[in-house]
Amino acid sequence: MNLTHKTQVTIIGGGFTGLSAAYELVKQGIAVTVLEAEPEIGGLAAAFDVGGQKLDRFYHHWFTNDMEVMELIGELDLNDRVEINPTNTGIYYANNFFKLSTPRHLLNFTPISFIDRIRLGLLTLRARRVKNWMELEEKTAHEWLKEIGGENVYRVVWEPLLKGKFGPYSEQVSAVWFWNKLKLRGGSRGKGGEERLAYFKGGFIGLADALAQRILDLGGRIETNTPVSTIKPVDNVWQTAIPNGVVTSDRVIATTALPLVADMVHSWASHDYVKSLERIHYIGNVCLVLELDRPLSRTYWLNVNDPSFPFVGVIEHTNFERPETYGGNHIVYLSKYLPPTDPLYSMNADELLDYTLPYLQKMFPSMERNWIRRHHLWRARWSQPVVEKHYSTLIPSEDGPLNGFHICSMAQIYPEDRGTNYAIREGRKIGNRISLVISKKQ
Fold it and tell me: Of the candidates 198, 254, 257, which has an alpha carbon nearest to the alpha carbon of residue 230?
């Protein structure tokens, strides 16, 4: 099938950013084509089947103060599919489990002194009082966390998590990134101080599918299995090369990782511009998903504060969403952030399970291999941009060096961090902006 055709706006990437931008454009009657390289839409929110239900490949939830996504859900008449529940969170440290769901749990966190527990508890309050986040751009997270929480709190609580999340980049991460994490989680709590999180019945892909269907209903096009090789200007229009042809358009919005965009535009963009797209580093992720015949624990989110372990978190999804949803299977995510050069990144599902299982059994000594009904492995090369000091100076403009070329990626979400809520916010924002530009020219 030849896909050569003309459209007003080409959007590269069928994740929430690209779909949200397309939604705003088609609402204004603007012809849009979304090109997605993978067989399905959703990006990091893609899913697979478990027990007859869709399950996210990578664990997902929303905070109760994620208003952009809640607004979109309302527009799509899907409010009845949102569940908000309190969650159990904890830390595995020095071969012990500690609950950290409420302020009372925090006071019982014995690996640090009572005074340090108070310091730890005050961190979120201090983060929420920061009025000008730009003042934090000159500090790394480890500098700032030591400054406001002390050496012991940093060593026990924060250093293992930073290393687990960013690996070789852990000491380069900006204080702004961590400040926003503390602020966001601190604002998603119930009256008793317990953390409350939201989930979408049917997985996050359910929202992506509903949004895609609305785009199609309004006349937009979405092409999956359609990777883009190049984007280039030709005779005052943009030509986007795909395996089966060329999509010609007046404007292009690229929503993929910046190094991928650099590859698409290097034939015409300046050396400095290409280098600016390649400047921001990304860390990858491998996520081993287990289907168990019984629960591991009663904890939803368990931070693993032991750098020797091959995963930074044990997320027992069915302590958040019922196992009956997935045919009675208990779902556990084992997440590891790592560079793509790490040997673990290249392991297949069986190899990674064999490597990981002894560590999991150390945490849960009663666990047997025969508890595992099935296991799945998912990789994301461009999982997380590394937010360094002075990150605001590294972010490329949404408007490219030539008229009609735009970028809207998760690396440009700042000072907030990547996430569905902000992907939707930024996608809708650029969609609205370009709609206004087009309408003025008509």
Answer: 254
